[in-house]
Amino acid sequence: MVSCKTVIIADSTFFKHLYGICVLRADKTKQNIYWKQIDYERIDDYYRARINIERKGFIISAVATDGRPGVRGVFADVPVQMCHFHQKQIMTRHLTTRPKLEAGIELKKIAQTLGNTTEKKFKHLLGLWHDKWHNFLKEKTRDLDTGKWFYTHRKIRSAYHSLQTNLPYLFTYKKYPKRNIPNTTNSLEGCFSHLKELIKIHRGLNYKLKRKMIDEILSKKSTRF
User: What pTM value is reported for the model?
Assistant: First the structure.
């Protein structure tokens, strides 16, 4: 068994009315070095995946993932990069594609600079934004039916806290330039999109044939031992 230092892309996807797969891909070679059928995305799936590839001789030098805190914990001893694409998706989910409030518009513009800025500049912009909108974020509204109070701008607060929480992982790729860590999981996302398109085209196939087709496609870019 030969040891091999590898930057890993780790993610899972689900096929409608079928099942999901947890995949680990070697970024440099674009090889799917591990995959397993799953019913739900559990942290244990990533623990098992890591143990599996390390037993095969892979030494994980860094990981790019979608940013789930639990998954980051699995790889806490190596540099972890939060996918910029997933971060921007989170922002869109909270702010929509066209925020109406000025605070949301400005925050979305800051998020869009990911990939074209440094951690220092990003932190500075985020800090300025928070200083400007600090009181705005603290505004509360009373529910007339229950009498309870809640934050008026909950979605904008959630978007901001997402950036704050993920900030330590958004610029990992710049901290370790020699490791060539990708700042997205797009390589694996492209693979997932291809699989889903094939499943859609061959929707008439039964479950077993669909599963076999997925395994065969993943294995074409897989390292076998």
Answer: 0.88
